[in-house]
Amino acid sequence: MPESRNGSAKRPAKGPAGRPADRAGKxxxxxxxxxxxxxxxxxxxxILTAATAAPAAERTVGxxxxxxxxxxxxxxxxxxxxxxxxxxxxxDNWLGLAPYLVNRGYCVFSLDYGQLPxxxxxxxxxxxxxxxxxxxxAYVDRVRAATGAAKVDLVGHSQGGxxxxxxxxxxxxxxxTASLTGLAPSSHGTTLSGLTKLMDKIPGARxxxxxxxxxxxxxxxxxxxLKRLNSRPDTVPGxxxxxxxxxxxxxxxxxxxxxxxxxxxxxxxxxxRCGADLSEHLAIGLVxxxxxxxxxxxxxxxxATPSSCASVVTG
Length: 315
Known about the structure:
There is one protein chain. By secondary structure, this protein is of the alpha/beta class. The protein has twelve helices and six strands. It has a six-stranded parallel β-sheet with strand order 2-1-3-4-5-6, sandwiched between helices.
């Protein structure tokens, strides 16, 4: 037991009902609770999605998700292409958002990109980002050919919200795209809560990591890829942009670096829509229905409604 200045034993402060105060332990307990909560939220999101599905008479498409026979309706004339994040894949990243959009009448598609040899196929988004953008370009053309749509809407999480900007700015994707929505995108790079600074302090570390997983180092603040990407304006004419960021993002840091500037840009702070929303980098893309509501608003701005904490149930 620590001693006070006069040498007597110093007893811990007492909390309610005589329990020792545990100020330092509260954040840790909250984090443990959130990790447990996020483990079950995907299943909860699927249940909620099914419960709020549109009536059969209102649904104008079939199964939608990666259904190449799906034809967009007059109400939702563009297919939605979902772009997963680093270490994600075309299925697991979208177990919440894909059914959410399908149940609202959209044709929804998702691709795998950035595969590396010897890495299990469930962990993608690790290859060079510029090459991943080429994969996205080919996939968009495939979806357009299958659906007959002139343009698509892109929705991406993390790297998947940043990489499409290379497609739009450098690979001619602008005329084929109506909107890009990024959920916690690594738009201007990340410090990974300071870890990239450590990487630069160790001689050769950045180069060594880049040789193994270039998709990671391409997103690090100051990378050659980001210098090229951001040498041009954030936006291209004719495309609407939405960024949804969370103050609790521990991967894209600082979190405001996700935001874009330019015409037709809407930057949204999740906690300004719902102050009680504690979603961090993963949850915003996997299960957060306030963020999903903002995606729906971008896809159909003519029928957009304000998102709020109530979106968890009604959004």
